[in-house]
């Protein structure tokens, strides 16, 4: 049995051996303790999605998935015995790193969900195996001495530089932090890997020289002083080499650039090693010489459409990654130490300026770098961190950047960053996409326009082959210049001609006059009007709101009652003024006066028309009226009940009394004394509290002492009474709202529902 807290390299185990089961003691890491199991090598998913091949892949991948899952379930000592002494396992892991699909590789994952799920499982298991192999301490009981761990992974080739590079490419996206810890532990425990990386970099740089040599380009940094042979001019160029060889060359470049970028992005500590080999200058020189030649070969040659699009996509991806590699190297070797305020800040500033100065020779690379990572912003940061920066030198660099844009025929889609402040950072990166021109079969660069630029600017190809943007004003100028010479042509026809001939007005006029238009333009009506753009309705006309057409709807009303609108508290009004405003009562006075039944005098005014005032409801005198029974109760003998009559009489009388009281109240000039039929609530509360205290004293109840949990300021100590009050409040917290909240939380935590 294994002893606790003993490293695996010093651990010995006793196991039965032989047919008789005799026990023997062996080191924990011993070849005889390895399980006999054959791991299959990995094969990628089929690209065409043939059912037979898919079924074969699923069956083969299922075995690999089960074997890796079994490996991960082994205990610590068994796992390391299998990893160190099982060669089939290492062949399986190496085959996956070599043949697993990369980001731009075509794969059959989209053809079948089962294939995608199986590939995802194997991908996860392989990463977990490598992660466990890079961990020398799994727990307090299961660990390996760091020095022995370094020898195991290095001498048994469990990790090497090519494997680490492939791990960054395959698992860097989405697992960058975990992968960084893994690689950092490998390089920390075994510093010999830094030496291996230092020896590997010349081979990586040699890849660039091989690509240049295949393209028939002589590199200036090869260091070869031998004279060229007479038959050296017979080497193939990119535009003349076979199709398969060109495709392999593009794939080689794309894979190399992607791998280096993933490694530096995951493990920035390696940037210093790349800097020692002058990798940045070699990269910019390769970019300037190889990229234009390869782009020209892909554009000019007639390939299969799918192959051509794939090659262009890989070249664009390689361009982007090379620019990002340069930025990573500058950021981690120059910019970051400057921003952190290192001691040798002057040397870092000088190094950064020298790198920018070296870029001035590589016009195309400098323009593409400045488009993704504006150099003017980096210089602004330098001026803030290092005020003694030479302004003449920085101005020279910025002018060189502007000239690089002009020399490659590119047009900025934003103002020059040299006029911006340090905070105004413009990072509108270029999106290198693929567009297929109809009828020509030529791939062109395309700028991704955002915001207002997508409406006002039109991308077109200039005379030098570079993609430029045409503003709305420039387009109108071209239209007017052509219509001045050819007024009979419609604007729609002229726009179609401009679009066909790359917005070259001279070429359009020449072809129209010589009748050499393309067949597609001959079919169009020369008087065709300009297409009318459907203007979108305004937001105000399509809005819908619950306050539409109210008295404050400024969008539908021309005039508002501004007396109803004010800011803050309304001026000139207060609570007292509002309460003493009796205007509404005065308005009701005439209405209630009509209910008076005692009238001393009734003014009667004669009317010119002969009619008299009948305001009090009085009719003309009737001499034949019989008033014998006026004093009797009219309707007393009806079928109405006595209570109903009394209630009705009482209601009429109550209304009369109410109206008289209101009139008397407002006719009095002196203030009416307050009626204290409602007692003061404070007095009532005091009486209730006195009765409650008397009742509790009779029953012998002692109220709890006053609790004080606030205490004094922090850091000055608390009294013992405050500490006891706080403890009592914490213990009895479940008696208030959220009953048993603390008890239930402790119960969930004890059952493992809440992490401790």
Automatic annotation (TrEMBL):
Sequence ranges of Basic and acidic residues compositional bias: 723-733
Gene source species: Cyprinus carpio carpio
Protein name, UniProt field: Activating signal cointegrator 1 complex subunit 2
InterPro entries: ASCC2 (IPR052586), ASCC2_CUE (IPR041800), CUE (IPR003892), UBA-like_sf (IPR009060)
Segments forming domain CUE: 474-517
One GO MF term attached to the UniProt entry: ubiquitin binding
Alphabetized CDD domains for the sequence: CUE_ASCC2
SUPFAM superfamilies, sorted: UBA-like
GO BP of this protein: regulation of DNA-templated transcription
Region (Disordered): 411-439, 694-756
UniProt cross-references to SMART domains, sorted A to Z: CUE
PROSITE patterns noted in UniProt: CUE
